[in-house]
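Contributing new records

If you add data, match the layout below exactly. Sequence lines come first and carry their own label; structure lines follow with theirs. Keep one chain per record. Anything else will be rejected by the validation script.
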Amino acid sequence: MFLCSPVRRLFRRHALIAALTLIPWVGPAVHAHAASVSGDVTTTDGRPLPHAVVTLRSASTSASALTGPEGGFRVDLPPGSYAVALETPGLVVTRPTALAVEATGATGVLIEAAAAPVREEVLVTATRSEALSSTLGMSVSVLDRQRLGDQDAATVLRAIEEVPGIAVARAGGVGPQASMFVRGGESRFAAVLVDGVPVNEPGGSINLGTLLPLEIEQVEVLRGAASSLYGTDALAGVVQVVTRTAGRYEEPNLHGTLEGGSFDSWRLQGATSGRRAGWDWNLGGQRIETANQEPNSDFRQTAGALALGRGLGEHTSLRVVARADTSKAGVPGPTAFQRPDLDASYERTTAIASALLRFAGERLTHDVRAGFSRANQLSINPEDSGPYTPTFGDLQGFGGSDYPNPEGYQNDTRRLNAGYQVEAQLGRMHLVTFGCEATRETGEIGDRREALLAPHRTNAGVYAQDRLVLGDNVFATVGGRVEHNGSFGTRAVPRVSLAWRVRPGANATTLRASAGAGIKEPSFLESYGVSQFARGNPDLAPERSRTFDVGIDQHLLDGRLRGEATLFHQDYENQIAYFVESYDPFTGSYHNLGRTQARGAELALDAAPRPQLTLHAAYTFLDGKVVESAPDADPIYAAGQPLLRRPKHQASVSAQSHLGRLSAGVTLVIVGKRADSDFGGLGLMQNDGYRRLDARLRWELGRGLELAAAADNLTNAKYMEILGYPALGRAIRGGLRWRLGGGQQR
């Protein structure tokens, strides 16, 4: 393929990684006079289930097979009557539960599986193709459409706050700067994807404050280094947002929401989805406005999302997905310490698009993908508000100036990528993946009163992976990637994981372990900056990470309870830090000076004790510290200090009840003390912990109408996720939701 030509030479030099996908497997001898049975495994609504073990048992024999990329399987066994089982926790075979095999064989068998009360999740982030979470030895979490609907979160970041291993920090209400820390990594150490497209700015930075829920199918979180598949940025993990698509049997429909609430907030959302004449679509738009809490902290956003699919034949399909939004917000600054800046603001536009052409056979799937992402932010401070001195209680900090800039500071970055991937079922128990991709990064960055920095960089990579099953109950994933980066050159990164299903069935016990490595490219300014105060360093090495974790997953009460426990250790090395090279004249640049370490435990519990009640709980213990830092670093970053804005203890408990037409839920989030800094000379180095209680209520009126209400921070707790930026007080919102038309949904 033409996409592979830039990296073909690299792959030949690192043939060992490709060889990992060719691990031999010897299956059982074929029975004499055996018949060949083939078929497909799907959910009850028609969604294929790949990498699932199908077992057919009779009184005298049994045979198993691994489903392929599209849920297909084939097995040889003697004629007779067999019970059909799916060796996957969280899934129950609904039909057929028994199968009669004749000497002529049985072809075209369709096995359907329904979700148990605590369901099995299907995700793509961990393996770059659909996989059942129970077959992976990695630490993964999925917030599906139902869970996201139950949460009714105002932002995506608030939704994933309940995932173990993740800490968040927001500069106030809805819309301001917001960051995410995965397993103690820096906010730029997790790769963020939207429909498979990386949306981090080159170098890993990303502002998640403007990412709001709009027609989202699910959010997938992979914790632990994942550069073996995704290349740069995936040092601490991967978070992927998947846009909603129409269900397999969904009829055309319209749905929408109109709500208003505290802080002069209102939201209007409308969408249409369905299937007709070989097409499927989901198209939605949203307008949101809020004044937030502090002066000049108002936020406005207009956003849209599109998912469009078309079958091009029996085995070929094309899917196009796009999301875009434009936002504007005031920036009052750290109002807990100083007067609000009443004229500073930013305007931000993001655009994401992807196209996927897929050929899916029984044992072979080809994907050709192209993607584009752009984030363009202009920060403006038109007037000089005069000098100020930070104060907090009896504390007084350093005096500061407003630094007006009517032209503004621009940060406009773009990423264009293309790739090819093939997935093949080899033998009965191997799913092998090979892919290559190339990314072009460009930007226009800097003070608009001067010439803008216009950097560009091209990256290319090849990756390979083997997912295999040993003895029907041991699932191994082995893979790696060779990455050539326009800044730091060529690196290879591996990953391996193992899931051992010690006890099968509805009350399954699974032990798992994984290890891997991550790399991250420098930012444009770190590599190409031209200012004497922050000169770029073209010789920077990539920031690196190593991850190890072990865990146990336990299902109980016939699938109504699932618990997970994970111990993890992560090292982050070669971290890039600013270094003052001279004070006369003053010059500075960037060097690989930092190293941090994070280790701890993650616990999660999902339960459905009754059909109308679901419970979720999560807890994270994080022991993170700075190991090495720049010689002249701020004391908050000195060796031995705890990691900034990453709490040692964090927990959440959520309950959701559905009683007839009424549903209600509550969520309690508990965040412990954490290291922080006022960065204004006040001497504050710790941020207090807090407790936040959220509640929601929905009442179905009939004929597609529903009343909904939610209260964020119901007890009006006073706290700051980032020192200096007060969190929103009690925020109550409510409104009407409607749905017109439509049939069965996925």
